[in-house]
Amino acid sequence: MMNKARIALFLGVLCISIFPVMVRMNLTSGLSSAFYRMAIATAIVLPFAFFSGKIKIKDKKQLIGLLICGILFASDIAVWNVSIQNSSVTQATLLTNLSPIWVGLISLVFLKFRPKTSFWLGTISALVGMVIFMGVDTVFRLNFDFAFFLGILSGIFYALYILVSKSTLQKMDVVTFLSISMSFSTVFLFLICLVFGEKFFGFTQKAWVSLLIQGIVCQLVAWLLISYSTKRMRATRVSLVLLSQVAFAALLAVFFVDEKIVTRQIIGGIVILSGIALTFYEKRRKVAE
Description:
The protein is an all-alpha fold.
């Protein structure tokens, strides 16, 4: 069961790694992209869940949990995109991927769950890898402005989503969870787009193809797999494994947007993946003993 969860998580990370590449193509605005990514996925999964009888909400508490998950996920995407628009992809990505630290701290302080030593060691190693990957000079050039605050906030939203979704998923199946929570996310992002005056139509054919890929691959397929894993794995471990999307996104960018990979990115990617692997090594060692 755990091996299936790990494989699903790995495949899910590969799917969401495509998203930054799609955004970098600048075919639509960040917020419009976020809305359609969610709306397209919801338009597919919600009818399936409804007609197959998968939607089963037992009480208001479950519905509230789904509402919170939907708002948190939508907020993460919206804030992350606004952060990019006001700073850089590098800064926004670096700050958002501090989420494993927030997951660990929130678990420790509010949930009274003490993450294993391997988690903290793996997190430190992965974050060092992130710094190497992005470039040490980039870290020293961070602008402590409103966009910086939004980047931090995005990471906190991401962490809260992982923790709340972990709790909510324990009480229902993955299809029910995604169909309802993504519906809330879609409505929330629609309102956000209205507030920021984003357009919903008038895109090129290439842009619509990109939006379809984002909705089907980056959202629906990716989060079916990740939610399946989240239900069966520790939230702290899932949050750390999601860091690997940075390395995979860079690799995909080479093929789709002709970006170059430099030596520090290769080294940083190896360190990131090594930090993630560290969290799995301790458990296998104990079983062997």
